[in-house]
Amino acid sequence: xxxxxxxxxxxxxxxxxxxxxxxxxxxxxxxxxxxxxxxxxxxxxxxxxxxxxxxxxxxxxxxxxxxxxxxxxxxxxxxxxxxxxxxxxxxxxxxxxxxxxxxxxxxxxxxxxxxxxxxxxxxxxxxxxxxxxxxxxxxxxxxxxxxxxxxxxxxxxxxxxxxxxxxxxxxxxxxxxxxxxxxxxxxxxxxxxxxxxxxxxxxxxxxxxxxxxxxxxxxxxxxxxxxxxxxxxxxxxxxxxxxxxxxxxxxxxxxxxxxxxxxxxxxxxxxxxxxxxxxxxxxxxxxxxxxxxxxxxxxxxxxxxxxxxxxxxxxxxxxxxxxxxxxxxxxxxxxxxxxxxxxxxxxxxxxxxxxxxxxxxxxxxxxxxxxxxxxxxxxxxxxxxxxxxxxxxxxxxxxxxxxxxxxxxxxxxxxx
Length: 416
Fold this sequence. Notes:
Helices cover 70% and strands 11% of the residues. It has ten helices and four strands; from the N terminus they run ααααββααααββαα.
């Protein structure tokens, strides 16, 4: 029989140890989500409810007690039988109760894996939303910086216009760029608010609570090789483990179905109440003496074999169905992993690309600014290069966020 208290204790130790390991902000948010998320609590309670099935199915059937009253008393030598009381206990075939416990235990373990799956999915949702929040927050800051830069360009253009070294069109071009960025900034602010509410809902705190975001997201890289990750997914993914425990449950159900085709035994006894006899020749101690005990032994005869054969076939077919589900699930997970791994490689390449492009764009911008300040030419080229600086800056932060999110998703697939 499974000891569910051990599982509860183990879960408590996990949460406690997790809090010790929480050395950065994202880990503290994961801990909050594990403690507070109502969906996760519901999954855990379903697991605890499944554990309660184990003592239920492992117990003997309740004994039966019957009372009988003789409308026409049956005369005996020592007096008339007035009533009787019977008690009986049924005992299933040997090992039946233990096998029922095995079935319930395997199903409880399957429920536990679904709880772990929900926890892994919650952790991924928290991480990915946090990374998206980081990018949106950085995009807001970058856009604001670019608006300030464009305002500086506008002042410079006005000076050049007043000196007769530039066209009034230069100032209008800057105004157009500023208006576009201000609109983009407002969209980013709205997006940040939506993501903020979603994130706080994951950890079940007030929607307006502030969220810590780093100034610069540390670049993360995979530690395991591609093949090692695939092996970990096949062995540790909680959806796969859930199917494995379901399959184990059906194997036990097959054994249980075979045992159901064996006899059950019943042991009991009768106690008869006897009235005093009218026979004056009986000794007083004999007249009306009840406590007449009749031990009973019974046995069920499972003669309708078709139903038991069908129960065995059902369990076997469910095992085969579960094996097919497991194979299909692994195939799907491998396909999903390949997409996530490709996204990771792509984000890694984009990080290197936009880092170099941003450096080159900034150098070009400084040269163009110097030329415009001295000569007053190429203002349109300055604006075009400013857009490139903005684009590469945003794309660099997006690639960093995407790389971390890809790793988080692969961790989820590995059941972390």
